[in-house]
Write a structure and sequence with these properties.
Elements (H helix, E strand, L loop, with lengths): L4 E13 L5 E21 L8 E10 L9 E4 L2 E14 L2 E13 L1
Antiparallel strand pairs: 1-2, 1-4, 2-3, 3-6, 4-5, 5-6
């Protein structure tokens, strides 16, 4: 699969509990390749709230390790994975992964 863009896959892994019994998390950043395709975008019309919602379809190589709880950082914007990771198989082999990502700016 041809992927023209670079991205970071951000995952949080639960670690040990601290002195107060709260679970600590370790954040990992993994650089990878991707291809993004726009799905939906909207802006609020209320002048007191300036938000832009953007949904994209993210295509990833088959070797990419990503979970539904991950985030994708693309062109400096952080997008949350929405739903499950789709595995696309071509002639019996895993060809690529797809997921829907959503970002809110503002």
């Amino acid at each position: 699969m041809i992927t023209h863009e670079t991205c970071d896959i951000v995952t949080k892994v639960a670690g040990p509990r601290d002195d107060f019994g709260v679970v600590t998390y370790t954040t990992t950043h993994t650089a990878g390749r991707c291809e993004m395709s726009p799905l939906y975008g909207s802006e609020t019309v209320d002048p007191s709230v300036d938000q832009v919602h953007t949904r994209l379809r993210c295509f990833l190589p088959a070797r990419t390790v990503i979970t539904p709880a991950a985030q994708v950082v693309w062109r400096g914007t952080t997008f949350n994975v929405q739903g499950s990771i789709e595995k696309h198989v071509n002639r019996g082999r895993l060809h690529h992964l797809e997921c829907i990502v959503e970002g809110v700016a503002g």
